[in-house]
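The methods section describes the discrete structure representation at length, but only in general terms. What matters is that the chain and its backbone geometry are given together, residue for residue. For illustration, here is how one protein appears when written out as sequence plus structure tokens:
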Amino acid sequence: MRKHVLGAFACLLAGTLMVSCKKDAVKSTTASEISDETKAKIYALGFGTDNVRKVAGGYLVENDIVLTEENLNTKVNSPILRVAESEQYRTTNLVAVSGTRNITVLVSGLGSAYIAGTDTAIARYNRANLNITFTRITSGTADITIQGFSQGPSGGFITLGSSGFPTAAGNPYNTILMNTHRQAYGTNPNVLYVGSVIQHEIGHCIGFRHTDYDTRVSCGQNVNEGDAGYGAIYIPGTPTGFDANSWMLACSNGGDRTFNANDLIALNYLY
């Protein structure tokens, strides 16, 4: 999920994406109401258990990632991609690809800025010449549906959008929720900014975790989101310092952010 930090960083946004077509889709129980068994499963998958919320479809962790019951019952046995000291992480499940695969995307009930932002994100992925491509459709059942929800700031952050990870069957996570609250993107959303958040959330849908997973430094924090003991695979040719411009940083800088050279290495490694 991408959120934007309020106050200390750019004015209105909070570094990770989250969207739903109904406001009640983000109503949640408090962390104290989540069972210890569920928290243990979340931790075993490598996620922090602070501020876990029960939402439609599963549990919201790290402020923008939805874990389903299927995710919670998945045995962890796969490696993590490492990009220098700031790491590019993959999830246990990835999108299954045989040769090439096209993933369809539908924008439901959102305005023109979100439609144009989706087209921007899709174009960026397609220009990367991967074995997966994306196509926006206007009707029917899509692989990924982008919907809206409205939720104001909380704890110095505002959620921009949320999504989840691929299924065990090898399909992308099927929903991206985008925040339509005026303090998320303003009354006249910037298409490139909206597009960069959708681009980030699509990254989760196809199996990427946050680049600053171990520190959340992009959020002005020093918090490890959790380590499930996946192992790590270093990607040759990447730098040894903090990767400050990755598209998968936990928190947004309030502007346009797309793939950098290391992101493209990671994408091509997987797809």
